[in-house]
Queue: 2 jobs
Job 1
Amino acid sequence: MVRPDRVNWLDEAIARTAPGWSPVPDFDAWRSEHAHALETLTQRAQRKAHRVGPVPAAIAFGRELMRNPLIRLAAAALLAVAVFILVRHLSRRETATPTSERQIVETAMHDQTTLTADAAQAELIRAEGLFRQSDVSGLLTLMETGRYGTKVKIAGYLERIGNASALSALEPLAAQWQGAPDTNPFRKAIDAIHRREKPAAEREPARAEPNAVSEQQPEGAPSSRSERSAPQSPAAPAEGRELVTYAGRVVDETDDAVPGVHVWGQVLSNTFRNSVLAQETLTDTDGRFHLTTARPVEGTEILRVLYFDHADYGLGWHTLAGSDADESIQVTLYAPGAVAGVVVDRLGQPVADARIEADMRLSANGQTDQLMLWDLTHKYVYADTSDGDMQIFPQGWQLLGRQAPPLSIAKWYNSKPQTLEELRGKVVLLQIGVLLPLYGEDLTMIQKVAEKYAGRGLEIIAVHQSLDVTWGGEVTEDDLQKLVRDGHVPFAFCLDQKRQTCSAYAPKATPALYLIDREGRVVISPTKDNIETCIDQLLGR
Amino acid sequence: MQGNAENEIVEAARRGDAQSFGMLYTRHYVSMVWLAYSVLLDRTLAEDAAQQAFVKACEKLPGLKRADRFVPWLAQICRNEAHQLLRNRKRAQSAMPIDADDKAAPVSEDLDLGLVKAAVDRLAPMYREIIVLHYYQRMDYRQIAATLGIAGHTVRGRLFRARRKIEQTLRRNGFPQR
């Protein structure tokens, strides 16, 4: 390499690295492609023109005043002092009246269902109080008048402290139970009471677990193990099975030991259908626990999680790394929080009797990552609990009932360019965010729908995300054309290279389905199971 | 930049005049593409970013408080768009192939332009945008300063440092010293 002997050689060299093209502005092309931007500009300008009148004299004077840098500085200093005072004031108030985390969470998350949720919460707290006082008759009275959730909770308490007087109240509820028989909390309470009522000598040998701490467990110890994870009956380690020990310590947020925590684990079979309680125990005064159980049979059984339950804390758990013993388990229990909200269905209507379970997902560093809410009745999941509401609507619920965002499409492969305006009067099934390498099942489903509804007023448009998105594998334009050419796509198929349409619909997972009614509104995001019912409904309208 | 005339056009566009916005588009499209190119090093993506920047600017224009800051404001939108595209692209593919037409001119006898191009591409975005605007779009200090909303001497300083960095990179790569 030879360096040229010129003063400005570097300037020349850099200039020569310029690419051999030069951009050319073409406003008309931009305008035709982005007409909506200019429309927005015009609308906003008009709105602003309406809003903006002559500036009041006081504001004008203030603006003039603030031009002086010294005054600006003084104002900033004043503001800083004010903020400082406010922060001090607030922090003092906080120390004066300690606010529990529960209250903070409740305040943050309450909405229109606050009253209902508070009443339910109050019942649960009352039940817990009665349980702590071992007031069985009080619990029975509350069970008569309380909400169903309270009844379930009380059944859990009665399972531990109930006596024969509770049986008459529990029997009808046990008979009405509609869930899986082995999760019937009322039946479990009845069984537990029957067992207790028998003479001590007749008690199940399974209760006499080879577990030092467990043997000391007082009858009716204050543990609030709920019915959700409690299996049918505790199983003692089988004869001759190898034993494995899990031990550790349970602390609270301030690292103080938590005694009396109910610790148990569930052994799941590999089909996940049968689960039995591994063992259960209570933590001692130093928060320590020691749990010995039969080692799960490798390949068919797994003991995955240990649960830690205490009436004063939210449920804690520890995920076991394998089936080997672990005697250094450290678990932190946190004060419980509350979430309140509304459950609505796909059409935005409130859902009665949804059975909600909250599930805290923890990230790797143990911080709370996400609160998942599950509706156990409808088998739907909704994860976004930022405001405590639950939406049983997997995709695009923000668009529900609104005019569908217009399509902004780079290329149509097997039809002329279409707009949703032109399709008014027809029902449109829009598949947003197709990705060719992963299009197998979804393609088959849409093919079936296309075949069934051919000529019946249903238009189908599938929008490929973009060739730049390469999850699952690279895709070229040829691949898309080949798919269409080979006759696999009996509906409109197009490419959203800039992902404008995809962003407008912003699906949570792709490809997402949207049904648009004859008036151009997004009505529903159907699933594989209900797509035909939904289409029938819309076509019938 | 013809200060007052430009401000009047921006004011008119802010009142919803599409034709004025068209003038702004025509005036600044090229520099926005080069600005985006300095981030993306890809023509198609740079043009996409610039066009998208104009879409955003058009929609948000009525909210712009100072007409005289229009171009730096637009430049910032354009940078953001370019970085967004870059992130999307990085997510989609780890390696960034350079388009055929983006490759440097053929290697001449006395100068390895590929090496110089690589040195330019390796600059920090702050320096690369100055180099691109100055050498590729042939803007002078004053024009660059007006476009990026910084002082003329800042442009001069950055350009000087950018050149020095390029020289250092070249030297490290075996380019002979004088």
Note: Residues 96-116, 200-238, 363-369, 377-387 of chain A have pLDDT under 50 and may be disordered.
Job 2
Amino acid sequence: MSVLWNGTNDLPGLQQIAGAFAELLGNGVLFKYSIASLFRVTAGFYLAVLLAVPLGLFLGRRPSIQRLGNPLIQFLRPVSPLAWVPFALLWFGIGDQPAVFIIFVACFFPILLSTIEASAGIRPIYFHIAANLQLSRWETLSCLILPAAAPSIVLALRVTLGIAWMVVVAAEMIAVKSGLGYLIVDARNALRMDYVVVAILTIGAIGLLLDGVMRRLAQIESVRWRVGQ
Amino acid sequence: MGNNKIRLEGVSVEYGTGKGCRRSWFGRGKSAGGTVAPSTRLVLDDISLEIERGEFVSILGHSGCGKSTLLKVVAGFTQPVRGRVLIDDQKVKGPRSDHVFVFQEGALFPWLTILENVSLALRWVKDSVEKKNKAREYLDLVGLEGTADYYPHMLSGGMRQRAEIARALAARPDILLMDEPFSGLDYLTRLHLREEMLYLQVMLPETTILFVTHDIDEALQLSKRLIILSEPPARIKCCRTIEAPHPRSLSSPMLSTLRTQIYHHLGVHAAL
């Protein structure tokens, strides 16, 4: 019991953790760093969504082009986003941009591949109907392709946001002087394991929160259509 | 222009068997000198047919004999390799909203409500309020009052099929192409929808209907003309006009004789 409270040399106890938590909360560091991390995740994630979703929808409907591009995608995809760190630093210097870039790389390929699958897998019968009712190109996109692919895309976004949140910590260990990842590195250097635990707990809690938000997205009626199928 | 709505002139359709092509390409090295598998399959063989305006024509035949293909050619989804399809003396070039295809089932967009699905076909109405009202009218027409805001998966199979017919009608087609529209439904629902098809014929006398079915009774009860296709490659095996007025009783001597004949044509002799 007292071990749990006071901790050991290798593991901080509840007492220290609570103290560190109060301290970091009190001086605003925890809040500031969380916001900094969230900002980077949001920027990188949105950038990836904005590029990968339209590209994926397009490639999914154009198998010939997709076959051409697929080797490149499959070549780049397994490269860990962290392998881009040297280039990210070289291109963007120190600051938010390299972290955002790394998150973007981490998010881009999973979203792209899921979107391609989703748009390629739309039942051909729906396109027959669209052709039969003479829907315009725009209507086919907005009334057919987008909603038909939406459930798979939303699922992919949910998974990917998790990845982004995972990667931000790693990205912040190298390029920046703020954020939860930076907090961990900084605390390690100062041998403040209680800070590390607080950072980990905060990362987990925010991850849970983000997933909750994404789950909400999946509950929208027009996205939920696959449930009833 | 005459009274002819649809005219098929020596229509032949082939399907390329994509897989076959690829296999023979891969197998080229191995089977040198072996017979090359034909990469296309003749589905419709030289079909000529004239259908009058407002006629209800049923197409019967074995499964896989090309009935659906025939409809797809008329709809413009498939192009014939030989011959041509004329509607109102115009060559069919592609799908159009005045000849609407009604699929077997599950062709409603599941992400749209029933009302939105029907509205999709109302392209001739510009005003959005007017569109809603019109869509409701078409839903009423097929007996789907009060289901406007449901999603397709919340409805039964029969209701979905009704909604699909409503959507097809909402496009104000002059030709309805129905590909086994009731085959996925239970027997009672099918009878109900069969009745409703009769009402529709009365309400829309100008609409020409091509109706592919397996159900011989359905064809006998509804159609003005019956066309039986042979085994593939399909030719027209037999063409019968039914003069009996509606409502028809299938037990009448004329229809029951015809029924037996049709079964014979389709190769059923003992199981009647």
Note: Chain B has two domains: 1-22+39-98+174-272, 104-172.
